[in-house]
Amino acid sequence: MNYNCPICNKAGLPDYTKNNVVCPQCNSDLKAFMLLNSISKPNKSKIGTYLIIGVSLLSIVFLGLFLKSNSDKKELIAKNVVLNDSISKMQIVDVAKETKEEIQPIAEKQEATIKYVVKKGDYPYKIAQFFYNDGSKYTQIETDNNLEQPYTLKVGQILTIKILQE
What we know:
membrane; 2 strands; transmembrane; two-stranded antiparallel sheet; mainly alpha; LysM_dom_sf; transmembrane helix; LysM
């Protein structure tokens, strides 16, 4: 393929963007045009290669951070379990030192009393379902609050809810 000289515009030159050429017409050295051409056109394959390498390195770094954070969480959970076990053992030992008796499991049930303010749309079955996870225990709410059927709950009415805690 023939190219025109960028200086005198005469035709018939070889590709001066790839080889060092001297124009036979105007006797101009076209090496500068070869250098300018190589600078102005970046090599696309190198950009793609650098991009792939950069993304790969970033993904490796993030993967490492993710795995480290997961192992840190597992270690923290393991330390917490060991700490809880050691604290409970310390409490048992302290109780044994104070009482100088055999340790027996404590199975006392404590009763908590909650004051509940009735809202619009409430009825004993719904309240029992909320506090006891069993709506059929509405009779306990009725007996604790001296409700006799037929009754109507009023908005703002205060009910006493008794819950056994273990």
